[in-house]
Amino acid sequence: MATTEEIKALRDLTGVSVMQCKKALEEAGGDMEKAKIILRKHSAAIATKKADRELGAGVAAAYTHAGGSVVGAVVLASETDFVSKNEEFARLAYDIAMHVAAMNPQFVSRDDVRESDLKAAREVFAKEVEKVPEAARSKALEGKVDSYLRERVLLEQPFVKQGDLTVRQLIDAAVQKFGEKIAIVKMARLSVK
């Protein structure tokens, strides 16, 4: 049985409801780290269920870094104004804008990657895997392309403020917390150099 202090501590860490924290702690046998993993797993499932919902509201946020030489900006959308006007939602958008400024992603998701980008990456990596035995060459090539994309796709990058989470997991946790579909609609990074 989870204590009130443990439930409160998990809620403070995750922002998830008291009942969900209690269930996760009970399922984890009181282990806080396991409970966080359980909540992460549940948040991904919840986000998948809400994926078909319409986005009707949102907030634009920008982060300026390095004395004004780099700006990251995002438009984070939600289903309702109730969520988009929430201070925590605005903070999430700001944190993602900070991530964009720091990590310079080229694409929001893999859906945004053009076939020409994939073809160019495959051509570059094909030269790198020429010495790999024929039987493993195709797998090695796809592994290199996958790694290349993970570094450039915003949703797949480790979140700059919490490296054990990807940006997608951060969004999934927000979906669980706010109870609505949330998505990054646009992003941009501008720099002087």
The assigned structural class equals alpha+beta
Share of β-strand residues: 15-25%
Helix run count: 8
- What is the CATH homologous superfamily assignment of the largest domain? Elongation factor Ts, dimerisation domain
Radius of gyration: 19 Å
How many structural domains are formed by the residues?
Answer: 3
Strand line-up in the sheet with most strands:
1-2-5
Specify the helix fraction band: 40-55%
How many strands, what sense, and barrel or not for the largest sheet? Answer: 3 strands, antiparallel
CATH level 1 name of the largest domain: Alpha Beta
- Estimate the global geometry from the Cα principal axes: globular
Unreliable stretches (pLDDT < 50, length at least 5) are none
The CATH architecture of the largest domain can be given as 2-Layer Sandwich
Might you state the CATH topology name of the largest domain?
Tetrahydropterin Synthase, Chain A
Succession of helices and strands? HHHEEHHHHEEHE
How widely separated are the two ends?
Answer: 56 Å
| Residue-averaged pLDDT | 90
Tell me the number of strands. Answer: 5
What does this structure look like?
This protein has 193 residues and is of the alpha+beta class. Helices cover 54% and strands 18% of the residues. The strands form 2 sheets. A 3-stranded antiparallel β-sheet has the order 1-2-5. It has a two-stranded antiparallel sheet with strand order 3-4. α1 packs across α2 (18-27), α2 (18-27) packs across α3 and α6 (115-128) packs across α7. The longest helix has 19 residues, at 134-152.
